[in-house]
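(Protein data)
===
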Amino acid sequence: MCLALPMQVIEMEGGLGGTTALCRGRDGVERVDTLLTGPLQPGQWILSFLGAAREVIDAGRAAQVGDALAALQSILDGQGGTDAMALIDSHFSDLVGREPQLPAFLRPIASAGSTR
């Protein structure tokens, strides 16, 4: 399983022609490769995986991912005790009461496969 971390851009290195940005995330400040996203503006949010910006996201999505990571960390730290399900529900509220959804770009492929 891969986990991308939300990070907020502090500044592009080398101006808009640069290919790295300084970003702040839950583990501090990191230098992130921006070849996949292109130039970023200070204050923008990204999902970073293995030192590379993979996707530009909004602050709301960054907060959702941050909440999910906090829930996972709480569970790993043994917090929540017998009420771990309530902890999961509170941090993964966007997933409670619904079935998992395929990303939009995969839906046509899945539909085409089900008619055969």
